[in-house]
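Re: the 367-residue chain
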Amino acid sequence: MDVVVDPVVEFKPHRVVVLALAGLLPFELGIPHRIFGRAKDPAGRPLYEILTCGLAPGAVPTDADFAIQVGHGPELLATADTVVVPASYELGPVHGEGRLTPELAEALAHIRPGTRLVSICTGGYVLAAAGYLDGRRATTHWYWAEHFQRTFPAVRVDAGVLYTDDGDVLTSAGVAAGIDLCLYIVRRDHGAAVANDVARRTVVPPHRDGGQAQFIERPVPEPQQASTTAARAWVLDRLHEPVRLSDLARQEAMSVRTFTRRFREESGVSPGEWIVGQRVERARTLLEQTGLPMERVAREAGFGTAQSLRKHVQAALGVSPTAYRRTFRETEAEAGVAGGGRERGAGASGPTLTSPDGPSVDAGSVH
């Protein structure tokens, strides 16, 4: 009997097309290029190809004192696996009336069904005006959240998170939250090791805790107020151990009440929520990179039992630990054959992180 050998599939990186609109913020335009452009497979090959287009080739004005020269027109959107729309300060009727200009509508018509759509900050106005966010959960910069909701009542606006994932449509809050979202997408596509490597190279945390509440204007803390950084560093080395709130407060020489208040001011979440989030991240890494049995993963991550692990992973990721491991391994196997390229399909997604906020934990003891 003859053995049939599958032909080698040509390596094709996932194509990301960034839509540059007049009045764009150069910082946000550069985020997809910086984050996706640093993601590589074990052989050193780029996992993403990042291209930029405008409504027409040529100079695109920015909110700075220079313009961006774009070589591609909107027809490039038809070739994208993922389309990213950064913020712009000159959206005109898109921002003021919630409707697309004929020129922008014609450009977006090039996007193929199933293409993954991503917005950074007020770039979400473009996706909403095009109807892509109807009935979906989305976010934008906290300053514009109420206006965004009034303008697009069909969108389920969540102003408290740094980003949202609705499968093939993802949105981020303002400015630097675009980094958080792009790193999250890299992790969803290729796992913790690749995303963490990109974060290290970019000198940013692979995952920020809390939501936008921590950035809304409030009285500036007194300079002499202590940080909770040392306590967080201390507990990261002890995630596998039971940790009491009093133990954390002791690291900063604070009362439990003061520590809890300061921690929430600095991170946007309670100490218990933060530790559960860190333990989920540890569990994700172990599920992705090892074949350890679930009881061992639970102990190493600090959840104690497989049942507790299942409860918290399900709450944070929307899938069981077993399903998460299976999905990631299957995606990894496909990437090994297809090189992580466009054959995988832009709409396909791994387990979804529904919110940067973790489930609450009893304030007296964090296990």
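Residues 271-289 form the longest helix (19 residues).
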